[in-house]
């Protein structure tokens, strides 16, 4: 019984994968719910409260590679972006800095992970100052002296110092950047170093 | 090419000039590499180890240097005074808070050749926390950090 259920759910996932796979771009997308702004009009004794549809940001028409499955492939950005491309990364984040889910952005799994990692690095480098988390009312945070950093892989609070660096044949290296981005195109010709 | 008389040419070749480096948002290792090359005089074709042809290096905004990766937390600066129990290990973040100039200074000290010239070359290095530099240090030769 349990085995049959597992088999059926597996088949369902496979079928759903088929439907959301290559066939989606050729069919019309189901109409999404647009953003509305509330407008109140007073006409004598009647009050009309209306939700007027305002534009939501949509993907620009005519991508260079329409047969791509995710937005990154469609716009030929596959191995070409990094943590400093804030204009690209800010299209996949919420106003307070969190990532949007994959079913909303339409990214494939590996690109979603890469973008998530780049967004984290950009936050730690201070490149997204307008996407700070929301603080409770009237809360004034203590301004500590901030250290400048870039390409930070781990969260600063979670990292322990390397007290023993090890011998020459067995050094403990410091991680820089992210291994998810190791296939990126290098225009300077210098190899990417992930461990300093 | 303007032709100079030989006296002026000699002065231009052997004068000791001041190079100004801006450390804002730069990794301290890269600053140290540039500064150590100019302190030793390796950027000159007339370099010789004994001919004392190095220049001065002035580095400003050392408080605003940026480490890549998690080096502020990973990198540890160790020292031992020689007495028992006096082995001290501080992280780069703690050292920077205590003395913002120390990280760049230690980086340059490690990149200079380990001989008796090193102490004199460090005396020719001038490090400043912020933009305000005393008047006599402000540059005759302004050198910008190259784009990397």
From TrEMBL, chain A:
Its main location: mitochondrion. One of its GO terms (molecular function) is structural constituent of ribosome. One of its GO terms (cellular component) is mitochondrial small ribosomal subunit. Gene3D superfamilies: Ribosomal protein S18. It comes from the Eukaryota. Pfam families: Ribosomal_S18. It is found in: Mitochondrion. The keyword Mitochondrion applies. Keywords: Mitochondrion, Ribonucleoprotein, Ribosomal protein, Transit peptide. GO terms for biological process: mitochondrial translation. Belongs to the bacterial ribosomal protein bS18 family. Mitochondrion-specific ribosomal protein mL66 subfamily. This is Large ribosomal subunit protein mL66.
UniProtKB/TrEMBL annotation, chain B:
This is Uncharacterized protein. It comes from Ovis ammon polii x Ovis aries.
């Amino acid at each position: 019984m349990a085995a049959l259920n597992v088999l059926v759910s597996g088949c369902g996932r496979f079928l759903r994968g088929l439907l959301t796979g290559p066939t989606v771009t050729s069919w019309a997308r189901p109409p999404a719910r647009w953003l509305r702004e509330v407008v109140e009009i007073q006409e004598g004794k009647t009050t009309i409260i209306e939700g007027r549809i305002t534009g939501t940001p949509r993907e620009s028409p005519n991508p260079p590679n329409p047969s791509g499955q995710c937005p990154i492939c469609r716009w030929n950005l596959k191995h070409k972006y990094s943590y400093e491309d804030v204009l690209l990364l800010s299209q996949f984040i919420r106003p307070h800095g969190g990532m949007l889910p994959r079913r909303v952005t339409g990214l494939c799994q590996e690109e979603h992970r890469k973008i998530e990692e780049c967004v984290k690095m950009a936050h730690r480098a201070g490149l997204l100052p307008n996407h700070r988390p929301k603080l409770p009312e009237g809360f004034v945070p203590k301004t500590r002296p901030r250290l400048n950093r870039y390409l930070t892989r781990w969260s600063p609070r979670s990292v322990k110092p390397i007290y023993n660096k090890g011998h020459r044949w067995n050094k403990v290296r410091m991680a820089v950047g992210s291994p998810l981005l190791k296939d990126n195109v290098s225009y300077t010709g210098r190899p990417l170093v992930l461990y300093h | 090419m303007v032709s100079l008389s030989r006296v002026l040419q000699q002065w231009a070749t052997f004068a000791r000039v001041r190079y100004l480096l801006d450390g804002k948002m730069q990794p301290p290792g890269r600053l140290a590499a540039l500064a150590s090359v100019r302190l030793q005089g390796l950027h000159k074709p007339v370099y010789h180890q004994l001919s004392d042809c190095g220049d001065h290096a002035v580095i400003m905004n050392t408080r605003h240097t940026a480490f890549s990766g998690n080096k502020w937390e990973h990198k540890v600066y160790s020292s031992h005074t020689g007495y028992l129990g006096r082995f001290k290990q501080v992280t780069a973040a703690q050292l920077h808070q205590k003395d913002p100039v120390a990280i760049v200074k230690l980086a340059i000290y490690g990149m200079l050749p380990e001989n008796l010239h090193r102490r004199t070359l460090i005396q020719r290095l001038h490090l400043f926390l912020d933009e305000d530099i005393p008047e006599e240090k402000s540059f005759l030769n302004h050198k910008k950090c190259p784009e990397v």
